[in-house]
Amino acid sequence: MHKPMAPEDWREANRAMWDERVPIHIGSDYYDLDSFRREPDSLRGFEVEEVGDVTGRTLLHLQCHIGLDTLSWALRGARQVVGLDFSEPAVEAARDLAASLGLGPDRASFVAADVYDAAEAVPDSAYDIVYTGVGALCWLPDIVRWAETAASLVAPGGFLYLAEFHPMTDALDDETGGRIAYDYFSRQPWVDESPGTYADLDAATVSNRSVEWQHTLGDVVSALAAAGLRVDFLHEHDITLFQRFGSLERRDGYFRLPADRPRVPLMYSLRASRPPEA
């Protein structure tokens, strides 16, 4: 596996970018926190089905942002959830949201730390479920280190669950999603300086430098296997959560390619487990 390349300021630039966008996200229609407080469930249907019943289990959510998915798992019955994010404002927002839902620290707690430092930062050494939600891995340069860290936090008999945008989408042209336009195997960091945010494209922002990476499906699966987890399944999905390509149509709550077009994978999900101790 190739050694990742990263600008020296990647972490500081990304943290500043996310810190500035937290208040925008809190007030946005995209996250719609008023509706979430009334019906607190932000999870996708395939995630709920694939993770299964979380009643009585502990769950660690890596790169949790403002905690909607974390709290959704708590309210689906998880005994205790812990969310981790490197943005202090995001963690504070998550704590406030948990309190507004009547979830105390014994049920839902949040930690401000870099994901690579998670093993030292979270309150327990292992969890029944380690969960990573959509749009997280692209912010990390070293997928091997991520896999080693995440795997170390899976309890015997537990599993890691990951739902992500499919790396194939990074190779397709932005307008149609119908032709190969970029290198699928590129390890070059992608540096962007666009203002605004996906939750409000017209928002006035100052900290606009961000650094992302693409990770092939093979690299993600291989990293988890090398970290000692057994891949239980890898599912590819023909849906996505936003208008990734101009040609996508919104149907049944998701964005899809037109019905008369050949389909390509737009998202994927996987579960990788740690065998019970003998």
From TrEMBL:
<keyword id="KW-0808">Transferase</keyword>
<dbReference type="GO" id="GO:0008168">
    <property type="term" value="F:methyltransferase activity"/>
</dbReference>
<dbReference type="Pfam" id="PF13649">
    <property type="entry name" value="Methyltransf_25"/>
</dbReference>
<dbReference type="InterPro" id="IPR029063">
    <property type="entry name" value="SAM-dependent_MTases_sf"/>
</dbReference>
<dbReference type="InterPro" id="IPR041698">
    <property type="entry name" value="Methyltransf_25"/>
</dbReference>
<protein>
    <submittedName>
        <fullName>Methyltransferase type 12</fullName>
    </submittedName>
</protein>
<feature type="domain" description="Methyltransferase">
    <location>
        <begin position="60"/>
        <end position="158"/>
    </location>
</feature>
<keyword id="KW-0489">Methyltransferase</keyword>
<dbReference type="GO" id="GO:0032259">
    <property type="term" value="P:methylation"/>
</dbReference>
